[in-house]
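User: I'm preparing a small set of examples for a lab meeting where we compare how different chains pack in three dimensions. I only have the primary sequence for this one, and I'd like the structure in token form so I can line it up with the others. Please keep the answer compact; I'll paste it straight into my notes.
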Amino acid sequence: MSATTAAVSARTRHFRAARALWVIGPGLMVMLADTDAGSIVTAAQSGASWGYRLLPLELLLIPVLYVVMELTVRLGATTGKGHAEAIRERFGPRWAALSVGTLLISATGALITEFAGIAAVGGSVGLAPSITVPLAASFLLAVVIVGGYRRVELIGLALGCFELAFLVAALLAHPRIGSVAASLWSGQPVGDRSYLTLVAANLGAVVMPWMIFYQQGAVVDKGLRERQIRLARIDTGLGAVLTQMVMAAVLIVTAATLAGHRSSSLTSIGEISTALSPYLGAFASRVTLALGIAGAALLAGLVVSLAASWAVAEAFGSRRSLNDDPRRAPLFYGIYMICVIAGAVMVLASHSLVRVAVDVEILNALLLPIVIGFLVALAWTTLPRPYRLRTGERLAAVLVLGVVAIVGAGWVGLTLLPM
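Assistant: Understood. Below is the structure token output for the 419-residue chain.
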């Protein structure tokens, strides 16, 4: 090979690597946001209450998460439209209003848990919510107002990296392999109401309505098209694995340290940290929770608010790009600011983060059939021929929708039954 040919080959490889790195982002960011403050608390409650019993569920949810979120990649890249815009054009403005309304309900609960997580982390180091919550809100406002899409994405991914602290915590907890294996083979208490409540909460934690709106909007705003779908699928797959590994790590930490040693009822982030201290050390437990929850909460607050902004602006047909000046897209930026400020204000009136977090994830499980139903309907009717759902994909999508609906309906039935 001549020197010229070698140089051209090297430049080609560098170009392909740079292109791949450019595509990576929407999937990883939304998946890391999926492991938000509420999800972390839900996983911790699962481990404290039931040991490793719910660990298989965390791993089984990886393909469920990928099947759902990969459809947003296909829809965004082939149609060039966000989720709410696609629903409005395909099914009409009333159905778009229903989908956006569902998103806003989910986003409200999510923002409460994110800012509550920030407040709890601040409290663990002696800072009052009146200091930490406004600082977090100011940070989220500044990130979007002064940044374009790529800058916002890079900051979001950097925040998500702090969640990797939970993987370190799982190793420090020294889980016994024999105990983990025994739990995997033991029977599941499917007749226990508290167990089923956490099953529904974990399902609501793995796929949240705002994730679908965010990833499709991000794919469009970033300018990804059909030729980038393969790389975008890899981005989504890596994110699905990573987010569930973080959830599994949180569950393992609490199962290894709390289950069987104390009351299984968690009431606050501070209680989780205090309970972990004898096993991980006071300093290690505080640092792990502070880094993991702060990063997760800030990233999720960013993603949730952007999802709401894209959805509302799409429903009204307004400009909606992070690359636009706020004066050119006033509705988009206005909705974002309202979401952040409202979330910060509402959290000051909240009580137990653990109770709120589990309730929000259950609410997500109840709303998911509507959101996933729209997603499947769009994929079934609007994707161009090369990207239409194959028979196996249709069956998988319908199966996911059915399971989500059954779990949500089952939880409602349990709450209506007498104790």
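A couple of notes for your slides: The mean pLDDT is 82. The two ends are 77 Å apart (CA to CA).

User: Perfect, thanks.
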